[in-house]
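ingest -> validate -> predict -> emit
validate: passed (alphabet ok, no gaps, 170 aa)
predict: started
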Amino acid sequence: MILRALRYYLSERKMPAPSGEAPETTPAPRIDWRCYMGRWYELARFETPFEYGLETVWTEYTLLPDGRVGVSNYGSDATGKVYKARAKAWPVADGVLQISFVPLLRFISTPYHVLRVDSAYQNALVSNDTGSCLWLLSRQAHAPLPQILPLLQEAILRGFDIARLRPTHQ
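emit:
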């Protein structure tokens, strides 16, 4: 997954939004990163090169003593093979983490914008800064539709083409 992430980083800036107009990716204000820590299951995503063919995708976020965030991504393919990628992230603005899968080379990093998170930190909508990526995340592997609808509505209001969302089979 590290090679996939690196290839993605090198190509993401070239990927225009489908409508030709970039979606709104201003992050949600006042994200409490301590509340954001823990396991998040991916419910749906825009397909990306580094996640192509992966199912049962989840991520663990851990607050590190130096204030950075440890990121461990997991996903399995159709054969059941599990892939793991580790990264380091650091808060750079309200609602924005800068993530690097090559921590020694911090300049090879990508922004992670939390667009919406509910008050209980149970469901979140996340994108990169260009809007070429979108993830619907939940603390539950199978979140009920009423919990996900506000995320989909937010994505639509921001100009994302939710028809591009690919459900993740958990």
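The first strand starts at residue 38 and ends at 46.
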